[in-house]
Amino acid sequence: MPVSLLWAVDVYGRVYSLSTAGQQWEQCRDAQMEFKRVTAAQQCCWGIACDNNIYLNVHASDLPVRYQEETYENQRWNPVDGFSDRLLPSDRWQWSDVTGLQHQPLDSFTLPSSSWEWEGDWHMDENFEGEPTEKEGWNYSIDFPATYTKDKKWNSCVRRRRWLRYRRYKAMDTWAKIPKQQTSLPDPFSDISCGGWEISEEPRARLSLWAVSLQGKVWFREGICHHNPEGSSWEEVPLPGEVVQISCGPGDLVWAVLWEGTSWAVVDSPSPDVGAIHAAVGVNVVWALTKDNKVWFRRGVNSHNPCGSGWISMIGEMIMINVGLNDQVLAISCEDRAVCFRQGVTSSELSGKTWRVINVPRDGDRSHSSASASSLQSAGCYFCGEVQVQTVSSDVESDTDKASTDGANCLATSTSPESFVDAPSDQLSETPKPLIPKVTSDSFISELVSDRETGKISREVCGSAAPAWSNVDLEEAQGQQAQTGAALDSADTCSLSSVATYTLAMEDPYGADEHPLWAWVSGGGCSVDSHSQLNWFNILVQSVQSMSLSITPAQTAAWKRQIFEQLNERTKRELDNFRHYEQAIEQSVWMKKGTMQWWRDWKPHKWMDVHFALEQFSGPEGNKDGILFIYYNFYEEKKYLHAFINEVTILVPVLNDYKHTFAIYTPERTKQRWPIRVSAATELEMHDWLALLSVSCCDSRGIQGPPSKQAIWSITCKGDIFVSEPSPALEEMPYPTPCDQMFWRQVGGHLRMIECNSVGIVWGIGYDHTAWIYTGGYGGGFFQGLASSTDNIYTQVDVKSVYIYENHRWNPVTGYTNRGLPTDRYMWSDASGLHECTKTNTKPPSPQWTWVSDWAVDYSVSGGTDREGWQYAADFPASYHGYKTMKDFVRRRRWKVQTGHHGPWQEIPPIPLSDVSILPCAAQSSVDVVPLWAISNKGDVLCRLGVTALTPAGSSWLHVGTDQPFKSVSIGAASHVWAIARDGSAFYRGSVSSQDPAGDCWYHIPSPSKQKLKQVSVGRTSVYTVDENSNLWYRQGVTPSYPQGSAWEHISNNVRKVSIGPLDQVWIIADKVQGSRSLSCGTVCHRLGVQPKEPKGQSWDYGIGGGWDHVTVRGNSMEPPRLPSLTELSAQM
Amino acid sequence: MADDKDVLRDVWFGRIPTCFNLNQDEVTEREAEPYYLLLPRVSYLTLVTDKVKKHFHKVMKAEDAEEMWFEYEGTPLKWHYPIGVLFDLHASNTVLPWSITVHFKNFPDRDLLHCQSNSVIEAHFMSSIKEADALKHKSQVVNDMQKKDHKQLWMGLQNDKFDQFWAMNRKLMEYSTEDGGFRYIPFRIYQTMSDRPFIQKLFRPVSPEGSMHTLGDLLKETYPAALPTEGEQKRFQVVIHGIEPLLETPLQWLSEHLSHPDNFLHICIIPVPTD
């Protein structure tokens, strides 16, 4: 899990962050002022500072936040000047947007705020729909608006060209003020909450930021997304009451707490609670605090039931609560203002188990004790001045009957004014009884009572004793001390931030510093879950315990190394001189039997019950071998089918909803495209068999441990990862090892693509675009225990979304309901509507997957959805759209759920990728830094720095600018980088070298005519591409002096993907491969006859498949054993 | 690349070269040749000495051969301790091969259990596994297993099938990440100079504060005398499978990797050789 940050504000307004890998709070030193509140997301943190401005701290990333501004220059031809900027009166502006309606001269573009800077000057775009244009970048047409072409024709009367300029967000890792709006907001904000990042998926990276003003109005920040981190403007969201506090979950839940202490959901359904002062929302949870600091957990909240079903009282007294990522809960305890983490929160047990105090020191804790007093002082001064200004302005505006806003904001008292205490009881009578959940109704009422009592008591206490302080205002309290009476009067009319109220008055600030007092915490950027190993808790424990040493990695190595060494010594001592002794136990045949179903070989094909047995024995040279038997009945006659374990080439789990199936291939079966298919009764049984068979296959071939550096990796369309050890004869001429004899074994984990090179660097990309690095382990997945290394296996959360659809039909009586016509599809179905898929019967794609989230409505469906995720259509099946019209009688919405896995892979955060390529190199070459190129899932081209054989993950990304998003990249052995843009055009990157790893500029290479390219792979010298119509192209004329080459030559069709190795060997994934018994799609194929002088080869050799999606041979730099060629032979003679 | 899994293999395939000599007092028809064998450390003497029995029967009259038993330098060897434990306890730091004397009469009923057939060993072995799982998982794992799974464990040991045994045994070694280890660590501490057969107590792998207990913690709790005191020469060796793990080795890891097939961690405390 990548390192992420927990944010908190202490009572002095200092902002701290705590890393999930760290052991101390780091103060955010660059914060120029004190903060009241912060709310974090993974990529940024928002805060309200004491000057009442909103500040944004965007975490620095290797990927710049970059926005492309564009404008069009338009010209018309006239007989005198030729093309000139003299346009007809009816024409568009000379400088306009793409539609021509908007006047957009170059100088009209300004930076949105001081946090931005221009990246270079305006330049023209010389790329038109994937084709390079003439030098000036003009596109021609008969008239505006019409279709444009890149070539000038006889009838081209107008032309236009696109100008581009980039601006870059520069205020990274620093608190940047969000500029005030022109139409200034009526009053400052008192609370903010960000969330909503799960509503839309990555490329857009939208974020919802909600804010509450002092007057209790709710505002929403429009337009926050990846390339506009600041958002564009504030929009007011009308609410029926005045809001004190708001919380927005990562999904589609937003809860707000009203002044009356009631929680409202934005859908306007009141939920019964009394005296709530604080709510915190996660994906599927809502936590709340009441005025007596009690903690409440809301049952049954999810996106289709946003209000939940009832409150459950939890242990602990808190003053502030926050729900972070993965529904993890953080709170600040009432008693000692410590940040508490809720332990044991899992998706099945959202309420968790216990509170655990985060017990780590702050950086520079020692130096602070003296500084804090002055910082307190200065903070106070600042507040004092600011607040008074505020008082003036807000007094003018505020309704005198209501609490004065400044009082509400700053005057924190632990008292609840009478009017306020009474409100809940009124509320009770108003609240419809049925809405009060039974479970909690008792505590609910006692809650009321206690609330009222504490209110009164505390008021008395307060009146007699000391004033209370709030985090937002320290100086005010000092002022209060002077004029206690007055302050208390005003306290009567105020309310509110009892949330952030704490009684500090009597405490000595020096003493307070030893034990940090926290005011606010936000876990929105903090990616932890119940399995995370956090070092936040046991610092003190460890220092106390001297005997039991804590296990640090270095010590781990010491004791483990000791054991390894001693075991080796023991073997030497006890065994090495006595190997001629007889073994006490003779090895014998061992059998495992079971019953299975077998997809029988003859027609009509069907599953039949068989006995399945594996007989293992020691071969003549001590190697283990075995035979697999399938005993079946054929017309009452007992027959069997067998396969020698040493002939099995691969075991492929073929899982579906109905059966636990796997396929067994031998070279013969691969030729037929007809594996032995067997199915076990349970998942567990299938795993036992698969693990056992895999181990005996590996044993019989003497394969063990991790794959070699030369290994060939491949991935099936289910994301299963296979690896094969190439034999030296694999690329031999003229008789290479046939492809169908390659032995593949599975490696745990789940990936969409994988790339490697011959120094053993292996990178993978998951279905959710997460980048993964191979750790050198093996096994994982179902290979638990023996067949798996115990080190280097990690949980890999590759998020694969599983979608099911909820279908409704409209009827005149009840509107849209789940009652369909008899001919309709299932009310819960897959996308086709043909299969019923309910939330309960839908299983993860394979048993190695587990759900990592609950079902949630998916809003990012093509065609758009309405606010509840529905898409409408006239009938099933039809084209769906995201709005309702008169003609629509059916609607559907997509639900998704996500799953995870484990294997020898470690995440490389934080940038999601869509393609990666590693420089292939010869086996012996000792390249220090290995160039690695990648494409982010947004289409940015990236270059990884610091990748070596020892540090395969590298250190950071270097962004390589492009004018459009890219989709494929490949770097060849001579540092030749080729890439494909999303529009299907090819580019060559000039001047890439070890000194200049990113090169200098892109050369646009025209695509093969009328083809949009999809993927590129560059080997030692060969450049191959695949286009969207599955054609494989070879680049002719590539020479060291002219690496761009001259033309594309068609090699083959039905090609899905190509991988060119360091010896220029050509491997592809091919479709429509005809076997002797069946046709397969997605087959691994090898180009035969590829030689230095004949890089295009002659024919294909077909290997494992179908169902394969990806192969990479870029690790295999094993030169074939050289046979003397005929010319050499004749020369010798 | 050394891996935890290799430890399991090394433990399983540990062998002690042994020389079996027939006791001088046995009545034989002709002189008995010594018999050499590699004994698996993790197995039991009576389970792996069929060949020895056959070898010596050849030189004896059938009526002279009663139940076979073994003795090393005057100590009868308890077959129900794993062979490796017997060796570490009585014969470590001696010259290999291990010289064991074979007896066919005067069975020392006071010292040894009778072992008429392999089913007695099986019963002993399975009861150890069940006891260990009671400590580790409140018997939940072993009770969930079927009869054939139990058989697989036993057959794995009997036929020296590492894969077969571990395919099942891994289930006994599982624990939830939340707990951080087993409930209690099944261990037995053996000492040469004591009347007590062995020490066995309830001991958790994780301290109440959440840190992992180590081998040192265990000894401190159960047998403090075995720990070296400051400023004094080491008096005892703490031996598991013929090696001396560092005292800071986490107990949970030891239990998962250095336990015998009976799922107990057998720890031998032996005096440091004086020479």
Overview of the molecule:
The complex is a heterodimer of chains A (about 1150) and B (about 280). With about 1150 residues, chain A is α+β, with helices and mostly antiparallel strands. Among the domains of chain A are: about 65-170, no CATH class; about 190-355, Methylamine Dehydrogenase, Chain H (7 Propeller), CATH 2.130.10.30; about 590-705, Pleckstrin-homology domain (PH domain)/Phosphotyrosine-binding domain (PTB) (PH-domain like, Roll), CATH 2.30.29; about 815-900, no CATH class. The longest helix of chain B has 20 residues, at about 120-135. The mean pLDDT of chain B is about 90. In chain B, β3 and β4 (about 75) form a beta hairpin. The two termini of chain B are about 35 Å apart. In chain B, the strands form 2 sheets. A 5-stranded mixed sheet of chain B has the order 2-1-5-3-4, covered by helices on one side. At the A-B interface, α9, β34 and α11 of A face α1, β1, β2, α7 and α8 of B.
Features:
heterodimer; A: 1133 residues; alpha+beta; Methylamine Dehydrogenase, Chain H; PH-domain like; eight-stranded antiparallel β-sheet; seven-stranded antiparallel β-sheet; B: 275 residues; alpha/beta; Ubiquitin-like (UB roll); 2 domains; five-stranded mixed β-sheet; three-stranded mixed β-sheet; 9 helices; 32% helix; globular
Radius of gyration of chain A: 34 Å
Beta percentage of chain B is 15-25%
Mean pLDDT score of chain A, rounded? 74
Q: Quick one: overall form of chain A?
A: globular
**Biggest interface and which pair forms it?**
A-B, 52 and 59 residues
Major sheet of chain A, described briefly?
A: 8 strands, antiparallel
Oligomer: heterodimer
Shape of chain B: globular
Total E-strand runs of chain B: 8
User: What profile does the largest beta sheet of chain B have?
Assistant: 5 strands, mixed
How do the strands line up in the largest sheet of chain B? 2-1-5-3-4
Low-confidence stretches of chain B: none
CATH class membership of the domain at 189-357 in chain A: Mainly Beta
State the domain count of chain B: 2
Strand content of chain A: 25-35%
Number of helices of chain B: 9
Keywords (chain A): Autophagy, Cytoplasmic vesicle, Lipid-binding, Lysosome, Membrane, Repeat
InterPro entries (chain A): Beta-propeller_rpt_TECPR, Peroxin/Ferlin, TECPR1-like_DysF, Tectonin_beta-prop
Region (Disordered) (chain A): 414-434
GO molecular function (chain A): lipid binding
